[in-house]
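Entry type: protein chain
Record version: 2
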Amino acid sequence: MGWRRLVNGRYITLTVASILVAYLALVPVCTMVYASLQSNFLGVGGSHWTLGNYSRTFTQPGFWPLVANSFGYAVSTSVVCIVVGFGLAWLVTRTNAPFKAFARAAALVPMIIPGVLNTIAWSLLLSPEQGPVNQALRKIGLPAFDVYSLHGMIFVQAMHVVPIAFLMGTAAFSAMDSSLEEAAMASGASPLRTFFSITVRMVRPAILSAALLMFIQSISTFDVPQLIGVPGHTYVFVSKIYAALQAFPADYGTVGTIGVFVLVIAVIGLMLSRRASRGAAVQTITGKGFKATVQDIGKWRWVGFACFVIFFFIAVVMPLAMLLWSSMLPGYEPPSMSAFKDMSFHNYSEVFHRPVLMKSLKNSIIISFSAALIVTVLSAVVAYITVKTKIFGRGLLDALATIPIAVPSIVMGVGILYFYLSAPLPVHLYGTFTIMIIAFVTITMPYGMRYVVPGMAAIKDELEEAATSSGASWLQAFGRVFVPLLMPSLLASFLYAMIVSFREISAAIFLYTSGTEVVSVQIYDLFRNGTYPVVAALGIVMVLFLVVLVVVMQGLSRLFGIKSRH
C-alpha cells in the first residue's frame, strides 16, 4: 500500500515539479559562482580554483566608476518609477479623478511596447541633431536633452518600467483602510501632512518591494545601456558583461565575477527590503468591513486627469508615432511636410519578404508560447504544493520558485549559457530553442506564481475532497476541479509570461545562435546596422501582435471567468 502511494500520480507530479523548480532556480546561480572561481573557465588547458578573477576585476581602474554608474542608473530609475507609478496609482484608487478607465489603460499600455523598441524610439526622438523633440526645444529657446547620457538612460528606462510600479501601487492603495486617514484629517491634519504621515507609511512595504524590483530590472536590462549608454560612453554592468563576452577570447572570468557581484547586490537588497517591510508594516485589515474610500480633491481632479494624459502622450503616443513615421519612409528623416510624398508601405513588405525576419517572428512565437505554457502548468502545480499540502519543504520550494526575482535576467542568461557550454550532458542544448525556453521559463516563473497562488488559496479544500471521495484520482480532481476554477489566473499567468518572453532581450542576446534568433534580437541587430525604417516596421508588427494577444487573452479570461462561477 505504501509503495502504491509513492508511485501514484499526485506524488510523481509533485516530485517532478519540485525537482524542476530547484533545477531552474539553482543551476544558473551555482554555475555563475563556479565560473567566477575558475582560473580558465571554458578555456583550453587546465583550470583550477582561484580568487584571481575577483582580485583582477575589483582592482581594474574602471571597475568602481562602473559600480557608481550602475548604482546611480538603477537607484535613480527606481526613484522616478516609484514617484510616477505610485502617484498615478494613488490618483486612480484614492481620488475622484475622472475617466479612470482611460487612466488605467494609459498607465498599463506601455507594458506592451517591448523595451528595445521603446529605447530605439526615444533614441530617434531625442537624437542630438535630428531628433524632433530636440529640434522643438531649440526653436523655443530651451537646451537640447542629451539622450546619450546617464540622465537619458534613466528617463528612457523609467518610461518603460513605470507600469509595473503602477500595478504594485494600485494593489497597495486598494487594500488600505482609509479610516486612519479620515481620523487624521478630522484631528486637523492637512491633506498633505495626512498623505505623508499616514498614507505613505501604510504603503511603505509596497514601496520598498517595488523599489527593489525596479532596481533589479534596471540593473539587468540590456537595451538601454547598450543602445544609449554605450554610444554616450556611460558604461554599466550590462555593457561590461556584453563587451567581455564579445571579446576574443571571451573573458569568462570577468563576466562570472561581475555576475556574482550583481547577484550579491540583488540578494542583499531583497533581504533589506523584506526586513524593512516587516518593520514598516502597518495592519489595517480587521475583522470589520473596510474599504479604501476616495478623496474629493476638487478642481485638482482635472489636474490628476491631465497627469495621465501627459504620461500617456510621453510613454505611448510619442514613441509609437516615431516608430510609425519611420516605418513609412525609405530612410530616417525628422517629421516634416516634405517627407509625406515619400511615405509608403515598402518597409512592411520588406519585413514579410525577408526570410530571416519572418523566421525570427516564428521563433519568438514558438519559444514564448512554449515558455508561457510551461510556466503556467508549473505554477499551478507548485502553487498547489505550497497552498494545499502539508508536504515537508513546501516553504523551501516556494523560496526556490521566488529566487529568479532576485537574479537579474542578464545574470540568469549568462549562468544558463555557462552551464550548457560546460556541463557534460548527453544532449547538446546550446544553439537550440530549448535553452531559450529554459531561460524564459526561469525568468517568468516567479511572476506566474504570483498570479496563480491567490487563485489557488481561494479554492476551498472541500471541493477536492468531494472529487476524491467520489472515486476520482488526484490528476482527475486537479484537472476537473482546480483547472476550471483557476482558469482566469492561469490565463493571466500565461499572458504575462508570453509577453515577457516575446519581448525579452537581456537573456536572449547571450543564448541565441544562427537560426534561433528571436525578434527582439533581430531588432537590435538591424538598429545597430543602421536599418532604421525596417526596424520600425518590424517593431509596429511586433506591437500589433502583442495587442491582439492581450485582447484575445482578456476575452478568454472573461469567458472562462463567467463559466467558473456557474
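Comment: The mean pLDDT is 83.
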